[in-house]
Amino acid sequence: MGTHFSRSVAEGRAFMQFIDGRSVDSLSGERIDVRSPSDGAVFASIPASTEADVELAVKSARKAFDEGPWSRMPAVERGRCLTRLFHLVEKNGEELAALESRDTGKPIRQGTADVTATMRYFEFYGGAADKIHGDTIPFLDGYTALTLREPHGVVAGITPWNYPMQILARVIGAALAMGNTLVVKPAEDASLTTLRMAELALEAGFPAGVFNVITGYGRSAGAALSSHPLVDYVTFTGSPITGTAIQQAAAVNNRGVTMELGGKSPQIVFADADIEAALPVLVNAIIQNGGQTCSAGSRVLIEKPIYEQVATALAERFSKLVAGPHDADLDIGPLVNVAQRDKVAGFIAAAQEAGIPLLAQGTVHPDAPEGGYYQPPALFGAVDPQAALAQEEVFGPVLSLFPFEDEADAIRLANDTEFGLVAGVWTRDGARQHRVAKRVRAGQVFVNGYGAGGGVELPFGGFKKSGHGREKGFEALFDMSATKTIVFNHG
Ligand code: NAI
Ligand code: MG
């Protein structure tokens, strides 16, 4: 199965990290094996950094911020650097897609879609860099008051393994457009495109120290980075529990944070909805990236009169879904690692044990390599709204269905988890579209559609346990800067 370049890219390569514009190994020389989730085999390695490496990277970013030229460069010049990175990603797109796909197991078309989104981030923030400005404020007679948007300084970005390149791009785009400098620590399971991006950033002309990458485990490199006193701001995407640890670490220095911590996002399907239009979207929202998506649509709430009809149609689609290696480009790839596969399999087993009906399950392709981390998609319904499956983030290809009585019941169910990231509303009733969109607690609400991870220009972030702060769009530029007010007394 599969003969794509993504099967051999980076074979045997010992990757280096990037500190102060140079490609360097970790000080200890220790390495982490890089495995392909499609067959479980080791194909490359990355440095395993610890506190001493973090120290060098943060000092480099500090110096680049404090001494310039980056933070003092005209905004348009910073934007041009990002635009050059856009062109370099385009030029190296096939390699980046292959690298991402082999490293994470995602189907190659998803890797390709991630390259497109990465380019969009650099395009958007490259253009936005010189279009954000402060205000003048009517104040007392004899005074002029104005505001500037100033960068925080050194930003630490700790990123996850599900969309490593896209999430890196949204951090780079917003942080660097505003004139911050960066130290990024990608996830130990998916660091390759971040390391490749550091090479491209050098080629794009970012000055040394503006964008540093250290690789290593969260408990060592990640912990040292988030607690470092020379870091001014921390942005994190990942699990709520690690988000708590990072906020506590940053709190020791009273630093600001942006937290994007996942969800349990509902899609509400009313009886008057265009069901044929909804069905493929409902399936894709949980199948995309094997369900390893913070904004995955993992709960579908269905109005009672159409429950059986929608459940049957979804079951038919789920039973046809096939998992296989990334380069076979089937419905889903393997999950990212053994722990994630076992976690998802554990949710499925526990749900079955609790008697929740398994309506349909996909299959693993018979030619999929033995050692891969495959998990066939599963559809459950009706799910008890208090079950673990209904409340916890599975982060895998598992969809739960819930019948509801009426609009009030739908809103109550939609809001009845600790999360609040994204929601979908399917109805032809215009007034109801507005009512429900306003009452659902979620950072993004899609009406008659759903965009898991989509829309670089759309502000994105959570309520409740899904986190705080906003990424993407113009709003991310506010998170990545602070307002300075200047008051002139001119009499
Ligand atoms: P994680 O949240 O622990 O890892 C994300 C990043 O944080 C990685 O770069 C990791 O090295 C780093 N990290 C871990 N511990 C740290 C610490 N103490 N200090 C600083 N950095 C630290 O996620 P993990 O363990 O890979 O996956 C566990 C679960 O998290 C998944 O099963 C899934 O449910 C959820 N998850 C959610 C994501 C999202 O986008 N919302 C992304 C990845 C995982
Ligand atoms: Mg990997």
Q: What's the level 1 CATH class of the largest domain?
A: Alpha Beta
Q: What small ligands are held by the chains? A: 1,4-dihydronicotinamide adenine dinucleotide, magnesium ion
Can you give the helix content as a percent range? Answer: 25-40%
- Rg value: 23 Å
Tally the beta strands: 23
CATH architecture descriptor name of the largest domain: 3-Layer(aba) Sandwich
Query: Low-confidence segments, ≥5 residues, pLDDT <50?
Result: none
Q: What structural category arises from helix and sheet content?
A: alpha/beta
Question: Order of strands side by side in the largest beta sheet?
Answer: 16-18-19-14-13-20-21
Pfam family, one: Aldedh
Family: Belongs to the aldehyde dehydrogenase family.
Protein name: Aldehyde dehydrogenase family protein
Domain Aldehyde dehydrogenase: 28-486
Provide a descriptive summary of the structure in words.
The chain is 38% helix and 21% strand. Strand 9, helix 6 (192-204) and strand 10 form a beta-alpha-beta unit. Helix 1 packs parallel to helix 7, helix 3 (93-104) packs across helix 4 (108-128) and helix 4 (108-128) packs parallel to helix 5 (164-177). The chain folds into two domains: 5-262 and 468-485, Aldehyde Dehydrogenase, Chain A, domain 1 (3-Layer(aba) Sandwich), CATH 3.40.605.10; 266-420 and 422-455, Aldehyde Dehydrogenase, Chain A, domain 2 (3-Layer(aba) Sandwich), CATH 3.40.309. With 491 residues, the chain is of the alpha/beta class. The longest helix is centred in the N-terminal third of the chain and has 21 residues, at 108-128. The protein starts with 12 loop residues before the first strand and ends with a strand. The protein has helices at residues 51-67, 75-91, 93-104, 108-128, 164-177, 192-204, 218-226, 240-252, 275-287, 304-319, 338-353, 388-391, 407-414, 430-439, 475-479; strands spanning 13-14, 17-19, 22-24, 31-35, 42-47, 136-137, 143-151, 154-158, 181-185, 211-213, 233-237, 256-260, 265-269, 297-303, 322-323, 358-361, 363-364, 378-380, 398-404, 422-426, 444-447, 467-468, 481-489. The chain is globular, with a radius of gyration of 23 Å. The strands form six sheets. Strands 16-18-19-14-13-20-21 form a seven-stranded mixed β-sheet, sandwiched between helices. A six-stranded mixed β-sheet has the order 10-9-8-11-12-22, with helices on both faces. Bound molecules: 1,4-dihydronicotinamide adenine dinucleotide (NAI) and magnesium ion. 1,4-dihydronicotinamide adenine dinucleotide is lined by residues 158-162, 185, 187-188, 217-219, 222-223, 226, 237-239, 242, 245-246, 261-262, 294, 340, 343, 393, 395. This is Aldehyde dehydrogenase family protein. It comes from Nitratireductor aquimarinus. Residues 28-486 form the Aldehyde dehydrogenase domain. The active site is at residue 260. Belongs to the aldehyde dehydrogenase family.
